[in-house]
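Section 5.1 Outputs to date
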Amino acid sequence: MRNSGKSQEKESAVNKSALFSNKFALIGLIAMMLLGVGLIAGCGDSTLSGSGSAQFQYVASSPSGQIDLGSTAIVEAKVVDATGTALSGQRVTFSVTPSALGYFTPASDTTAADGTVASVFTATSSGTATLQATVSGTTSTASLLINDNTSSSGRITVSVTPLLMTANNADSANVLITATKKDGTPISNGMTIFLCAGERFEDRDQDGYFSKGVDSLIYDVNANGEWDPIGSIPTSTTTSGGTASVYYKSGNQATTVYIRATMIDSGNVCFAEVSAKLNPNTKVASITMTHHAEDLRVRGVGGIEWSNVIATAYDEFGNTVPEGIPIAFTIASGPNGGENIQGQGYGPVEVNTNSSGQATVTVSSGTISGTIRVRASSGTVISAVTQLVINAGPPYRIQLGATSCNLRSWDYVNVRNDIVAVVCDIYRNPVPDSTAVYFSPSEGCLQAYSLTGLPPNDKGVAGVQWISCDHRNGRVWVYAETAGGTVKDSAMFLSSGPPAFVNIIQYPSTMYAASDEKGTVVITVYDINGNFVVNNTSIQIEADFGSIGGGSTVDGCYSSVFETKYNSASLKKDYSPVSPDDGIGAISHVSVKAGGTGGASSGFTTLFLTTATYVKNSTVDIEAELEPGTQAPFSISVKDRANNPLGGHLLTVFPNGGTVTGENYITDEYGEVNLFYQAPGAEGTYLITVTDTDPRGHVSFAKKIKVKTATL
């Protein structure tokens, strides 16, 4: 039988994204990265310090982990109050430590309605950067590694500053070449360095230039099958002090240019290559986002699994930008089920605009339902996020349960029990809202169906109420099914009645009559149908001897048990005074009643046992001093170690002076014998010796008596 409480509170997903204000026309498009260098997407851990009513829920960069020198990352933060509620209109300041590693654009901004804010970080030097966001005196940080993307083959290196230029036939960059000998010392002055800038190729003949019919193209930007120069650079230069420096001038084509430097030293060919980016000669001022399909399905269950996300870029006058401007797409947050941008994870994925100023990517769902938040950027300009909802697949499994596993309802009408069905798809995602689940019971009444996700139900949960009526055997089976009956489950709970049977499954049949003795009593209680009674059914217990407490049953789902301790006690008399002694001090009858007045009852019997005669507790009670020749009554008391009187013990009494007379030498129910002692005529000290001849005795004890004439 499955037990289910009311569904837990829904766990709110943390949406790590922000609406970035585009009211500023941001100048400078910074998006340089080396070809083939993978950027890691995701959110790194952040540390928090400071105090205040406004605080950060998170600070994260995208990409996180590491980027290349000259590249950019979108840094996003969410501001909440102490209760976790998003705060809008909060001024957040961005900074980096060490400050020489880069800068933020803008350096500060205010949070949007969802508490998020974003800025673009541009990496200007290599190293480990600590990205900082501050609001109301509270600072949170994230770490970012900036890689040096200088290319080198060992003996020659090339660096280009800046790596990002505009394709306007005017922008230029300084190209610095460093060359060394085999031993690592600077190359001799006047060494010729062969230079070229254009599409990427494999220099098979190792002459430093593209040779048609010999060398092969790796990157053919215009797909014409030929190597084309991009911009201009001197064809060669010579070293001085192991270095050489020239200027590269950009062309008018927005693309990636590969600058190659080749040195031929005594037949040894060494080369280095570095890429630079030529952006279109247009500044992006704002970006809007749209998509074709809002609701997707998780992968592999049928339905739409992808959507085209379209970014439209505008200049500062509201005109769409021309073709060829790169737009970077990233997934700001998602359910982490394998969702991706064009098979490249969370991105960034860079796509150039078309003639309408639009760049398009395909976003695909994963195996976990939830919301994908996609953002586009160009340099320091960031779009607002657009959201794609991934819905679960069709029902694959259903789990049924009841709030109460046992109700006191078999003999009542209109007692209610909440029934819930949790329905998931093949990936264990909650199924879409309004999925119909049909219910039926083996007894009682039940609503015929319920829809998942509609109030008061949570996502993937359908709930109905069972109502007591039409009583049968009290074992209520509830059945639920969906997906045309192909997905189903059942669960059972008890509709119990009043106590009808009390079973005593453990009790002490014997206990020694001593205050430190105790035994365990275990009782189970069932109703008229043989079902467990509900938890806390009252138990009353009374015993003839000793003490035992009542209480109530526990559980009610898998058992209905009451357990207590029966405490023994010493006896005032022997309630079974037979001779010879049978060792039974008393017979205790214990009655058990369940459910109060009129409830079911039972009982058991426990023998209170005595032990053998204990000399130190056995006595002869007589006057300590007598007149010669006088007669005095006296009594003998026989008890065990726990001071229980021992009846039925046969005694012999022997005085070494005087005589003892009486009718009975067998102890009564109080363990006593009453006799007379005739003192001798001569003065002296005499002993009365008592021997217990019972099989449970075999001990002797004595009393000293002084016989003396009284002094007047």
